[in-house]
Amino acid sequence: MSTSKATKPSPADANFYQLLRQQFPKDLSKPAIYDDAGVYSWADLEQGSAMIANLLQGLKLPAGSRIAVQVDKSVEAVMLYLATLRAGHVFLPLNTAYQSAEVAYFIDNAKPAVVVCSPANFGWVSKLAFQNGVGSVFTLGDNRTGSLLERAMHCAAVHTPQPVKASDLAVIIYTSGTTGRSKGAMLSHGNIASNAQTLKTYWGWRKDDVLIHALPIFHVHGLFVAIHGALLNASPMIWMKKFDPQQALVHMQRATVFMGVPTLYVRLLAQANLNAKAVRNMRLFVSGSAPLLADTFDEWHKRTGHTILERYGMSETVMLTSNPYQADARYNNATQRRGGTVGFPLPGVTLRVVNDSGESVAQGEVGHIQVQGPSVFAGYWQMPEKTAEEFTADCFFKTGDVGKIDAQGYVSIVGRNKDLIISGGYNVYPAEIESVINNLPGVAESAVVGIPHADFGEVGVAVVVARSNTAVESAQVLAALKSQLANFKVPKHCVVVADLPRNTMGKVQKNILRQTYEKAFA
Q1: Closest Cα partner for 226 from 243, 213, 239, 209?
Q2: Is the pTM of this model over 0.70?
Q3: Rounded to 10 degrees, what is the CA torsion of 245, 79, 315, 383?
Q4: Given a cut of 80, is residue 405 above it in pLDDT?
């Protein structure tokens, strides 16, 4: 297997924040983040994260303690992330849409030493936290408020990052499983550092780049790919707490890089003033976290003259593949970005496609995607058996995705063997939703499938069977789900049927359901 040519930090200097800090501009007074509330300098990031790191260290936590964070998007939340790395602890970001039952599971499973939540949620979050033995609960608002900042203000603005090994845990990203039980993917300082350095080179980051940050910061795309890329390149970010397509077009007059999920590109295409002139200053558009429809890919090129760069990654691996930004010498100097593909394996990544027996398939044939490389995670938190299941005997990670590699080396993802639905960039697992539906009064069984949607890429459709002599209303099912699950998990459509299609073995044939409802949002 080839290895990444990116420079690795020395064993005594493996704290990822240390690597980022070395790339900051010499003049720390320069703008680092443009926010609606003002401009944050590089000195603000350095000193703000130092103060929060000193606060964490003042709590006398054991090394590697988990810091669970469920807060709205803000620059201060980025400082908290950097502070956690500096202090040698483990950052645990949680989707802001998660409800109490979901948060309770994460707290129970991860056993964090500190929980940070939005001020509006302090009542119920703190109750859950203290019931599970959490020592400290702080609040952090998106308007520079909260007890975290109030406490940190009294701490020193100078901090020496805690020495860590490259293999030491840096982040736990929870990713739902097909059984409905969420799994915590453990990523080390070395994992995230190697991927950030590889992408900096592969995507041709330039010293004059400016990134529009329009993504949430609780998952890999927004937290790692976008923020790491800008910080490692000492590039300013234009901060969007909420995505507004017209405002994004205004920002493109002075930015050069934009990263988004397909939904954002669909919404930008809906703007009448999107044209080549509107994006004339832009260098690179990146799409990921969900499949990009061919129509969106083609229309974007037609309207703007730019070709979107699609890439492929996941919580357990960070980024694995990418369409080329510039000539890739490994693949006959290919430069074409092909719609419907996710490009080539990144330098240092080995990707193979195998059949059910684990044997490599022929070129162009569909099979299971397995990967190996410096950014692949160490395993699932507190789940050694599950970790062992997901790795082969020769240490390749089974992604759970189904794909193929063509004659030129381009990788295409053609399906997911775990029924994963990616809606608006968020992972949705049908089994979790089905378990909730099946517990509703009057429900005999259910099946949830993903179908194409122009805005979200995919959305869920719930197909429900009622118990004998019982009436179940679609609206009631959806209303019940909204009260128990994050909104992005709730199906956009629900139908009640007499029975579900099954094969001779009694297994529900979800392929038939997908075909039946595939045009529900056409």
Answers
A1: 213
A2: yes
A3: -150
A4: yes
